[in-house]
Structures are given as C-alpha cells and as structure tokens.
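Problem 3 from the worked examples.
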Amino acid sequence: FGELFTTVIVGERNDGYRLANFLWSLALAISYLMVVVSAPLCGAIMDYRAEKKRFLLFSYMVTVATTAMLYFVEPGYVVLGLVLIVFSNYAYSMGESFIAAFLPELGPPDALGKISGFGWALGYIGGLLAAGFTLIVLGEATADNFERIRWVGPFAAGFFLVAAIPTFLWLKERGVPKPHGVSYRQIAQQRILGTFHELRYFKDLSVFLVSLLFSMAGVYIIIAFAFIYGAQVIGWDESVRNIMFIIVQVTAAAGAIGFGFLQDKLGAKHTYQMTLALWVAAIVAIWATPALTEWLNQQFGWQWQAQHLFLVVGCLAGLSLGSSQSASRALVGVFSPLEKSAEFFGFWGLANKLAGVLGIVMLGVLQTLIGLQASILLCVGLFIAAMLICVGVNERRGREAAVAWKSS
C-alpha cells in the first residue's frame, strides 16, 4: 500500500514525490509512537492477568477492520489514508509485541533461535502467498489500475483474518493470573516502575535494547521505503517489482531459518552481529546499484538495467531482513524470565517502535533535503552503531540473570 499511497493517493506534485514520501513516513512514525506509549502498559497488564490471547484478539480485530477500510481511500483522500494507515499499523504492531510474548513459553532457551526462525519464516511464506495473489490478480499500483488495486486492503484483511485463526484455536495461555481487585491503571504503574527498576539487574538486556533501537531504525527504514525506492530511484517495471517481492520473501524465510539454527550453535549475540554486517553490505549495494550498473556495462559491454542488478541486491537484503528480525527477538527471549515475558517483550516492542519513529522520521526529513537515494546511507550508520553497542552484551551473563530471577 505504500507505493499506492505515495504514487497515486498523494501523487507526484512537482517535487519528486518528496511530500508523498514524507506523509507516508509521518503516518508510520505516529503509529509507532502510539505503540511506544501503550506497549509497556499492555505488557504489564497481560502478565498480571495472564490475558495475552485476549489482547492479541483485540489487536487482530482492529487490524482486520482498519486494513479492509483502505478500500475507501481514493486519489486525493490523503487525510483518510493517513488515519487508516496510522490505526491499522498501530494495531498490527501491537499484535507483534503480544504474539512475541508467547515465545519464552514455547521451548527451552537453547531452542528459541530455531523456534523464532521458523516463526518468521512462516510469516514470510504467508506473505509470499498473499502477495502472489495480489500481484497476479490486482496488478500494479497506478492511477489507471486503481479500481483493481484498491482491493489490496480488503484482500490483506481477509488473508490475515483467516491465517490467524489457528493461533486462537490452539495456542494456550500458560500464565497464572494474579488476584483481582486491583485496577488496570494501578497494575500498569506498579509493574512498569518495577520493571524499570529491575532492568538495572538485567544489564545485558538493557544494553541490547539500546543496540536494537539503532538496528531496528535501519530495518524499519528499509521496510517502509524499499519498494518506494525501487519505483522512484531504480525505476523498475511491474514484472521486476513482482519478482523482487518473491525474492525478498524467499530469502528472508531462508535467512530466518538458517540463522535460527546458526544462532543455537554460535550464540544469539554473535548471530545478531553477523546479521548487522550483512545489512551494512546490503545498504551499500542498494545505494550503489545505479552507478554499479553503469560501471559493469562499461567494463564488460553488458546491457543491464539498474532494476536487473537490483534483483541481485534484493537477495542480500532479504537474507538480512529475515535473519536480523529472528535473531533479535530470540535474544530477548533468552534474557527474559518466563514470569515477565509479556512485560519484557513490551519493552522489546517499545524499542522496536521507537526505532521506527526515529528512523522513519529521520529518513523522511532527510530525503526532502538530499533525495531518497543519498538518504538511504543513513542506515549504514545506524547498523554500525548497533554493532558497536552490542559489544557490551554478555550473552552468558544475561542468560544467568534470567535463570537467577526465576529461582529467586
């Protein structure tokens, strides 16, 4: 929907789509800021009441409803589009935190990398199936094709509606609720203040969350602008766009599974740092694609277009995407005591979405000044900063802290 919103709903206003890109980044940033405020509160209440599934169900229903309503956003209906993007992305992002809170209950710490990897891989496979239908049946995001492509919202909502049913049928709530008689406001205040105090005990988790803030800022920039970059900078056609989506989904699934197994052997920290190094290479390749294409054509007499080389770069980007998301989530699971999983994953969600706010706003403003292609290099600095901060994380000490808290 990002490409549809920027190129058709807002459109090119003699500014190289800079206003459209900024509005897209603004809507996502607002939704992530809402998550930053509410995720820790909801996490504290979920742990106290043992009601993760109830919160997950509510976010699921709101996501389905608001995503379906994107059908009514026509060219020029910018405000309506912004409102629906904010609430649909907010509900979906809250659901990400809720479902992640179940991770420590699904297996022992040594298996969380593999479990997290399979979870991400299944998500990418589902995305591939959904996108395959969308790309084949609904077509490209252009004004001429608007009456067909506008169904992308209802279709995505319907797919999500059906795909999530097994979770609510078979996933069990294993927490034990605390006594009633305390208001949600009191629960949230007490638990969050307590968690902030306890985070001093979980030193390695705290340091990792700071690293995650930088790395996920870069990841959210790529998620939000990758296909917009392809349309505006690379100038790809519909067939290449479709192939790129397939490549990213397949390589991301492979990265999530492959690095999930690797994580269980090498450790979560080292695997996470490897994924950041992959990201640096991917971003440099994304930025250099137009110039590199021209150089290769001159040196070897080829007739490649930038969009063809961009497909090769997409393999590296997809591998980086799947592996980094899986590794970061699993590492939080390793550092989290089971009794506080929802609460700690609420802070994981906070770090993720605060990263989304900072990264997307920085990119949105920067691209209005120097253009989208040069702005993408911001991600290189973010990933390098994340790597350096993560040096201070001691995985063994973090595991021991989680185990010691459980037994205390």
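Problem 4, a separate protein:
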Amino acid sequence: MEKRALKRIDQLEKVKLLEILDMNEESSVKFFVRRKEFKQRQRQMQDAVDSLHENLHRQLEAGGKTDYKTLINEIIQKEDDLMKSRMEYIRSQEDILNDEQIAKLIIFEREFRKELQDLLFKRGGKRARPDF
C-alpha cells in the first residue's frame, strides 16, 4: 500500500479514536505518543515475522534438507512476542484511560482492522494462495 494511503488510514484511525475515547487534551497527547511508539515497535516486530515467513516459504519452494523446526519455532516466538507487546501496550494505558475507554479501544482496534481488511478484499479481489 502506498505511503499516502497509509497516512490517510492512520489519520482516519486517530480521528475515530478521539471520538470514541472522548479524552481531554492532556490524555490525548499522552495516549497518541504511547500509541505511536507502540505502532513503531509493532511494525519492526511484524517485519521480522514477515521476513521469517518469506524465508520459510523460500525453503519450502527450494525443497531439500531444511531445518523447518527451527524456522517454525522462530516464527512462533516472534508472533508470541508480538502478542505480548500488544498486551503490554493495552496494560500501559491504565494510567491514561479508564476501564471503559480501554474496552472501547480493544473493540475499536479489532473492528477498524476488520473493516479495513474487508474494504481491501472487496477492492483488490481474492488473494492469491501459495502453491505447494
């Protein structure tokens, strides 16, 4: 996806979060600083997972003797790290948001991501599946 589109999606997400979470200015600043740091960490971690997936895919296509178990374990560990990072981020909001706002944040993130995926799926058609 191009940078401009990603920036617009990010802006839309921020506007919707401001509406849903109904924070004061001080809380908003703290929230979005922490969120930006979290998103950057998540992006880096996801890039590492993606790289491992690509490596595994190349190994499968090449055939031959490969230690799949090691690659699989690395992927599982990195994905586990991603989930732990997300849980830490949610918990870190407790000094900014109340429980209801955190609940709204959790629901919003899932629904926003799902809506975005649905839009991309409708617009781009079906995804290609790898041949094995």
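Solution to problem 4. The CA atoms of residues 53 and 75 lie 7 Å apart. The mean pLDDT is 91.
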